[in-house]
Amino acid sequence: MTATTAEDSREGRKRRVRGTGAVRHPDRKGRSPIFDAPTPHGLFFRYLALIIVLLISIGPMLWELSTSLKSKAEDVYTQNIQLLPHHPTLGNYGEVQNTIPVWHFALNSLTVAVINVTGNVIGATLAGYVLARLKFKGRKLLLGVFVATLILPAEVTIISKFQMITSMGLGNSILGVCLPDMIAMTNVLLMRNAFMALPREVEEAAIIDGANVLQRMRYVGLPSVKGVLSVISIFAFIGAWDDFLWPLLVLQSPDKLTLTVGLSYLNGQWSHDPRTIAAGTMMALLPILALFLILQRYFFRGVAQGAIKG
After folding, report:
1. pLDDT of residue 33
2. pTM recorded for the entire structure
3. In Å, how far are 131, 140, 143, 194 from 137, measured between CA atoms?
4. Under a CB-based contact definition with an 8 Å cutoff, are residues 225 and 304 in contact?
5. How many structural domains does the chain have?
6. What is the distance between the alpha carbons of residues 257 and 296, in angstroms, rounded to a whole number?
7. Exposed/middle/buried for 41, CB within 10 Å: 0-12, 13-18, 19+?
8. pLDDT (tens digit per residue) in 3-17
9. Looking at the domain assignment, is residue 176 inside a domain?
10. Cα–Cα distance between 197 and 247 in angstroms, integer?
11. Residue 303's pLDDT is what?
12. Residue 191: which residues within 8 A CB-CB, separation 6 or more?
């Protein structure tokens, strides 16, 4: 190959995007010439989009945090927005503890969240493996029923769920709050897709070695879907911790209320302090943030996981 031919070949692998000055490989089809280009304009639009999304997502949280740290002397209804408090104080958090049994409510929420996480990890794993790896009559029909349940909003079935829980004698109980969400259909489909990505040859080799269904799921399937299990655990915990409407319907005894329902007592008929309400909101939010920061690497690993480890 001559020098001219090699140079032409190298030039043929690159194409310059008109108007942006960006170089794009011919194999990279369908990518944006602005956001995918390592140019000053591309970097500007990247960071601009990132800043906008950041303000929308964490802006309300920062405002609640600022309000919770403001003293009684500061006006929270002023039209002049002041994010940083002039006299920051933690007294509002102490006021929350004096108004409601916040730690008892938090323990109830933690109990509900742990039960939901356990039920989803075990139930979704078993159901997902059955739908993905076992062959039986009616499997496609059953899968269609699972998918159909995702079409209905939760508000449509909430009355029927409430009637079912009360008929079982589980009204006004922690178990009644946990039972409907112990196996979420979304988690079942996530586990099914994760098990579907496993090579058939690996499972056939385990069958030749004499492994039964449970052994194949435990020693072949589960080690390859740990990332998806972490995603399910995080989503189940956050969903159970933040749920408000369902515990509000099921629970009547004040000593059984979850944290999100118990915080509503801060907004009473004779007392309405935005600082105290913001402090209670932050107390409910901080455990979720701490959990996500601890498990974020497992979360993103599970989202990106698409194949068996080699």
Report:
1. 56
2. 0.76
3. 11, 8, 12, 22
4. no
5. 1
6. 29
7. middle
8. 444 444 444 444 444
9. yes
10. 37
11. 58
12. 124, 125, 127, 128, 129, 132, 225, 228, 229, 232
- Domain of residue 171, CATH code: 1.10.3720.10
CB atoms closer than 10 angstroms to residue 62: 11
Alpha-carbon distances of 129 from 120, 138, 193, rounded to whole Å: 13, 15, 9
Six-digit token pair at 28? 């990279």
The range of the structural domain enclosing residue 102 comes to 96-304
Assigned domain for 278 exists? yes
Residue 233 inside a domain? The answer is yes
Q: Is residue 113 a contact partner of residue 240, using CB atoms and an 8 Å limit?
A: yes
Instruction: With H, G, I as helix, E, B as strand and everything else as coil, classify residue 16.
Output: strand
In a domain, 129, yes or no: yes
Q: Radius of gyration over alpha carbons of the chain, in Å?
A: 26
Residues, the chain, total? Answer: 310
CA dist list (Å): 211 to 129, 130, 157, 273: 15, 16, 41, 62
Token pair in block for residue 166: 């009360």
Helix, strand, coil abundance in the chain, percent, nearest 5: 70, 0, 30
